[in-house]
Amino acid sequence: MEKVREKTKKYEVSILLKANGYYLARMSLKLGGGPSQRPQSSGTTAELALSGLLDKVIQCIDTSYNQGLITFKIDDRVSQRLVQSVNKTGITSPKIMEKTLVIINKINYINSCILDNISLQTDIVPFYNQISNANIINSSSTPVVYNINSTEKTIEPKQQIIIEDLSIEWLKYRQSLCKKTEDNPNPLSRKTLDGNRNRLKKDILPFLKSNKIIYLTQITEMCIKSLLKSIKSQNSKHKSYVVLNLLFKYAIKEKNFKDNPVLRVDKPPEKIKMVKKDDNENYIDPDRQEVWLDLFEKEHKETNNNSNHIHRDIFLLFAIMLMTGCRPEEACRSKMEFNKL
To answer: Does 269 fall in a domain?
Structure first.
């Protein structure tokens, strides 16, 4: 395989001439937090291969953006090195230039839509518009008030908060905390924000969706306990609890919500501490050592005439540890002539 261009770098186009006479165009691509990709395309000419590669790059950008995989701005080097490497190939036909310009425009558009280098997924778990309200609203879980001028019950407007909408609004608020200002000298890290979004996307909202829970008023103590129980990772349990608590605090502050049921549920620890056995269980009481030595000596005499007895060496091993104070691994490594003891 012959390389048409040498020493290609990241984000640069590489065109190779294969042994079968076809050209292969490829490049490595990293799109703002999304997975690394290596689009490639082959053709009977270098221009066809390059044209096919640019189509693949356009498709990669569209797919990654539509699936919410681009979580922060795309590196400026992607556009710069793409243009430079295309120009170095010498293939500057109108078709190639047009496709290159399309890629540049798409990258610029995506970056303009991302605030402070962080992309917020607004389609975290789209589900409430697919379920009939008649199936999910439970009169016992949705607060109601009496209208003064009517005997009919009406749902209190401020309490009708859709969980998904609140989650998106809360994430936007958390996103604003990532920028350092005079009022916010210790900005929130992007890693923390991504962790908050992941807990909502992977644990909290899917559970609520599967149980047809749409409104914030439907989340009860029992619901929270069931949610935490459904999460396998102990660390994820802890973080989901924290996220849910912050979400309710935000609703109370910004939406005049009345209650935070999370506070009535025990907070899961980040890690489960292993229960240690009482250290005294690992030792023989000094007052009992003579009793054990007598027992080992008695057992040794009874088995001394039988060299194949399975307990003979065990009795001697424990007796040696009691008399010398050595640890089990030290006693096992020692070489003793038991028949001379």
So the answer is: no
